[in-house]
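Chain X:
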Amino acid sequence: MRLRIPLRTLATGVAASCVTATFLLPASAAVANPAATAKAPAEAPASGHAAPTIPKPLGATLPAKAAPSSADTLSPTAKPLTPAQLAQAQRPLPPGTSVQLSPKTPVPAASLAVRPKGSHNTPADTASCTPADFSTRTGGALVSFVEGSTTDCVNTLFNLTGGDAGAVLKESQMLTVANAYQALASHYTGDDSTGIWQLELFLRAGWYVQSNDPADVGSYDATLTSANQAALNAFFGSAHWQDVTAANAQVLYDALVLTDSANLQANYLNVYKQVLNGYTSADDSVTGMDNAVNAVLFAPLWRGNWNPAFVNAVAADPSIISTLGNFALTYKAAASGTAGFLVVNAGNDLGRAAGDGGTVGTAAGRQVQAVLGASAITGTTAPLWVHTAYDADTYDAADCSVYGTCNLPAKLTSAVLTHQLVCDNRTFETEDLTAAELNTVCTSLRGEDTFFHNLVKDSGPVNPYGKTIDLAVFANQADYVTYSWAIFGNDTDNGGETLMDATDPTDQPVSVMYRKSWNDGFPANVWNLNHEYTHYLDGIYDMKGTFSDELVVPDIWWIEGVAEYESYTYRGTTDTEAMAEAANHTYKLSTIFQNTYDNSDTVRTYPWGYLAVRYMFEKHPDVVAAMLGHFRTGDFQGAYQVYNSIGTGYDADFDSWLTACAAGACYAQGPTALFDSSVNGATVSLHDTSVQTGGGSITAWHWTFGDGSSSDQQNPTHTYAASGTYTVDLTVTDTSGRTASTPASVTVTAPATLPTCTDPRTDALGQNCSRSNVSETAGNTAYFYLWLPAGTSTLTVTSSGGTGTAALYYDPDNWASPSTYTASSTNAGTTSQTLTVTNTTAGYRYVSLYAVTGFSGATVSTQF
């Protein structure tokens, strides 16, 4: 085992169905002087990348997937995505939303009902929503039915296929709806009181389904295109389409997307400019407005680059390119914030347009250079830099030396994954693991090798290649999402991913992970370390063939279940989520045996996969051995027959086993961290219910609350300063020094400000309270103090509100000031500051707000 820092440079290329990694010494890229370089017209896309498939219109807007579970991913991706797939799939969306990018994705329908006009989607419980409800109506009856349907009902049309698609979305039906949309749009009221939103969704669904399945729907011609354009002209000519309201935002979003779905991008460049130029950060507080702005960036200004009419229109008037550049430069500082998807997608659009060639490519290329020059590969503007660089390199690779993006994966790796450890056949590439932490993860995986072989009793590798593995570990989820996809080609909507094809001699297996901000019991806090490594071992020693070969039968119960089972059992940790599920008795074993990635959510896939695998190892190891015998020869159908032939034969015994398991039979020896929580407004009360299995007892408790504060009490109460969902984590320690941790989410609703501190002195703070209307002239300081009692482990101080710029300072011994402090928060241009400090003893503490510029109306709050 040897440690080397800094990390070697990683050059990543896509070959066949794998990531090919070669390792080179760092080299300086020769970047041409942009001012002296004449940018030649380029074909779209430029040489160096395979021609991407023209993206389809956007599908339905869906709720985002639930946060990743304790396991890795629901996506069966076992090889890198192509550059074109990544460029589309990794484009950011507003928090809490997802967009259907491929057909036949199930659309959640909270209500498949028809609603009265003006009822804003209040469902009528007895109403019907079937394809026949739409296809059997024509003319005014069809329009009235669409207008009266819920948006959830109309969203189901995005998944129509075959005869249903043709009957509902044929051109004559689309023309009827487009003409009705035009009539409503000319008198648009700024909300959905007339059902105009449902008409938009119907039209979008038609263009989407027809684009994906033209044989089912039939052709659309210029008549429909003209009708859509007339309707959109009426909408964008109305008095209320630019209203900055939540009611307008939802309708505006789909109108803007419809300009793209109908391939009318060339006709609405001025509309797109008005939307982008009209945006301000104040819009972030209006529900849906950021999403409406993003509709321009995510749909027409992206997909329009494949439409010659759009490219020609931009060539005639390239001001939309400078508008994009100005937008990216103006809001670059927000790239890592909650509205960062807007500025990042502006960079995406510029990078894509750089590949259009001619005057469009030249104009976009200049803006790409400006954006890359004004942002950085690391830090708060990194998401903007990475996305802009990736798309410019993908679509305008010939000019990579101009942009400084040549061999982009190597450039990103060298900048971010700067620590490395070679551990036998494993190479760790990490962002911030120390030498000691790298040794910890190396030791863990070395031991896991032996554990795995003893568990599955293999006879050696069953695939010819993939004998070494790279394990990339990012410092946090944000960096994983920012960099991982551009380096390794993986999807990032997950908790980690393993990419490998051990049948390909050019493939380099890689597991990509990140560290959690709270203790989840993994070595060095590398989330899913042992789960992902089990995927690698299982793929080498148990599953002959590619991942696609494995998925020809329902074997996800094994693939994900054995990874979970080994991860918890090897680490000697109780799978608390699985124990809770065992008590619920939700599934039969025969049902879990039919798990696929399509029919199983995270709960059915991971904790129930764990339970099924554990049961089979404990009660029927002979069946496991027989199944693995088929897996190891590539006979996946034969393996399926082994466990499928059991039918329901083990269901009753499995159910009894679950009862015993939940009662404690499946708990690991030592401590298991468990707790209950109750929430009252912004305050959460936590009750420790941890258990000790075997000898010893629990002697210590440590809580982190997800906002930077913590407690060592057994049953603490904590008050949050702001509403939101936080991760509470409990770590318990027993008399032998063994530890166990478990996290859980809590959602709190905080008042706009904490209660006013009660001390009569206005410069005295207290526990979980605030002082408001603080003001100072430039160069002066507002001083505060507070008493921290014994047993308080952390203190969080925040300032917010008002106008002007104020810096926050803290000192444990003296009046805090810009020249006397031990902690500070100095965000530029605002009074919004926060700092968290660790407290070890009781005593007075000192806080101040320094007026960088004159400020007024600020509030200072404390939490402990």
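Chain Y:
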Amino acid sequence: MSGTTPRHVFLVDGSGFIFRAFHALPPMTRADGTPVNAVYGFVNMLMKLLQDTDADHLAVIFDASGPTFRSDIYPQYKAHRPELPEELIPQFPLIREATRAFNVSCLELQGYEADDLIATYTREAVERGARVTIVSSDKDLMQLVGERVDMLDPIKNRVIGPDQVREKFFVGPERVVDVQALAGDPTDNVPGVPGIGIKTAAQLIQDYGDLETLLARAGEIKQPKRRQTLLDNAEAARISQQLVRLCVDCPLPEPMESLAVRQADAEFLLNFLSQQGFKSILGRVQSHLAAKGAVRAEIAPAAAPVKPEYELVLTVEDLDRWIALARKAGIIGLDSETTGLDAMSCDLVGISMAVAPGKACYIPLRHTPTEAQGSLALSAPEENAEAVRLIPLDQAVERLAPLLADPAVLKVGHNIKYDLQVLDRHGLAVSPIDDTMLLSYVLDGGAHGHGLDELCSLHLNHETIKFADVCGTGKAQITFDKVPLDRALDYAAEDADVTLRLHSLLKPRLVAEHMVTVYETLERPLVPVLAAMEREGIKVDAAELKALSEDFGRRLATFEEEIHKLAGRTFNIGSPKQLGEILFDELGLPGGKKSKTGAYSTGADILENLAAQGHDLPARVLDWRQLAKLKSTYADALGGQINPKTGRIHTSYSMAVTTTGRLSSSDPNLQNIPIRSEDGRKIRRAFVAPEGCKLLSADYSQIELRLVAHVANIEGLKQAFHEGTDIHAVTASQVFGVPVEGMDPMIRRQAKAINFGIIYGISAFGLANQLGIPQGEAKRYIEAYFARYPEIRDYMERTKEEAREKGFVTTPFGRKCFTPGIKDRNGAMRSFAERAAINAPIQGGAADIIKRAMLRLPPALAAAGLSAKMLLQVHDELVFEVPDAEVEATRALVKQVMESAASLDVPLVVETGAAENWALAH
């Protein structure tokens, strides 16, 4: 492609690429804490461009730092530009380094903007008879568009020619400068003429021909105000024209010949990508090298086909053909389309499969009227003749069932747990499986999100079709069964396609990054276990919830009367603004702080501090808030979440949300029901066992403290756990020098607060608040704790150093817990990241242990002939539904399996309870 005579020149607006990448991607840091999200996005965009272009000459052109000649013309030029984000500044030199790593010309020129260099190279290329493509969406560059010059908008992937310029400015490219001179540009502080926008400016230029003619004949304008404005601001318009007109004869930092496309140095490129920690891009480049034996500048993702082949499957014969293709491939991307997001109640609309990158199909399904209300064909109204052509659900199930259960064909989904449940309800069992969401989660943890759209942008440089776009303008709320087939195909097939493509990039990283064990022994096998738990659900007593709601309602009314009496008048207790005025303006309580909105802060910490000082009103408001939340969030809401078909609540467990590997519960969230208060425990009374059964609760005792003793190798704590003594009493005895016998409960409480607080990096201020003691005394307690257990301080410093060095810490079972912000310049952010790093191996280790137990329990129960069903996981607790006759046998087995789930330096202890409802069982 190289040569001295240019035929097609690509000039890339580097700044446009940088800001697009920075704002499109979430924060990312490499191992040393340097932010690299813009670098990552830039590299992806450059690789795609190099793949797609036929250019023989190419350069990326950047803005140089410092003032330009325009500042001499108008000192206020760009004076109002906001400061650059701190996270972006260190990425500028890395982006230039990335450009050079691909052996692409990297240009800038002091005193000129990138647009001036682009304009000058454009002029020279055109004079040599070449075509020019300017890769940018910047409106200022549209003045350069012409017969042999076009622009490529990299965001929308569309070409901008003279017609598109007219759509934007209402004039041709040759008059864009005149229109901009009149309209001005507030972003760059180009003054223009006040009151004249693009449309008016274009009309004036169309009427008078050019700016100078318009200004010379301004007295002829009929509208008095416009005429006078032009006369008053003629000089401003001329200055603006000088500012917006690009320089086409600035000095060239390199001759045109130097822009010839060149082969990149493979070692240099791989080295750069490795230093940044861009493992997925590195893998793509290495795959390319293995296939080609060399790397050229135009290298791109091998798994990014330009023209996907998607097929709508409307006949049984076509379905059979795709099933044969799937068997031959041995691996498929799989996705289901439904009428909603609730896996337990939605209807299956269709199934998509991908058998190779870019080769996918969509199978819309026809339900009979007895299976669903009306037609669930992807064709909107029933009268649409297209609906009757779809494959009936029962026929599709009959043919797909053997394939989806075939152990020789791997089924890859994204958040496949949802698809497993939907397909299982419709008669389709799916196995074996892989999950790209979990692959990403295991590999990159909290470094970024793991949604399909985000991963496609990160790893494939691909923007997925959005559901709202498929539905059409203003129809984002319609369900997928009402989406016309022509629009549904690309959306549905794309999900299966990109899932398969992501799998080919992510799965190989498991071996290279030593994460096979975490994925294969914890996350992947847990998917069907959680799916079974979610399908089973838990029985809820609606009458008990109603009674609780009524009781809470009466008590809230009583609280309101008391609060209003204490305030001296009625007010809206739920209004922070009104509450703040009562507390700090009318009652004159101390500590009032106003937020940016001008209202007083009335958060829980503020009210708790006032209550601790003996003020009754804030104490009663805290009680009111807690009870109001219990009523609205649980007593009122849970009843509406009972599935009418099963009579149970079916929570959903998210596997890729937390940074530590813990599961999170939603719809409803059953992990946040407060159990330390009597009212919170009342909510658990409504979760019941069916007749003839009991709920069995099995809870790890002090598992995080046991893990602290293990990972920090604290001999004193390990001995106490082995002896089975009261760990908090032992700590109090060892730290405060008091005997265990006859210990003051207050001293034990202080030791307990320190034991648990140390795990979360509690400060002297935090401990003082928690115990209601002076901060100096709290500081002495913490210092005494570290003096008695120096191993824990060593662990904390060692862990923080590991986080700073690697960007993550690991649990005892090998899970990576990423620590963004560990090198942040902001002290508060850095301290938060350090506390998270200290806690992550402990909390993450506890999460790994209970997951190991959850995987072992179903087969152990089945092998023992016990029919107990695992229903819930809430932090360190598992809840089972057990027939009355099997309670004791199940209790013993569950305890044995959970206590042997991991081998630590201290014993694991599980406490169990069984009763008719969850509150009594726990």
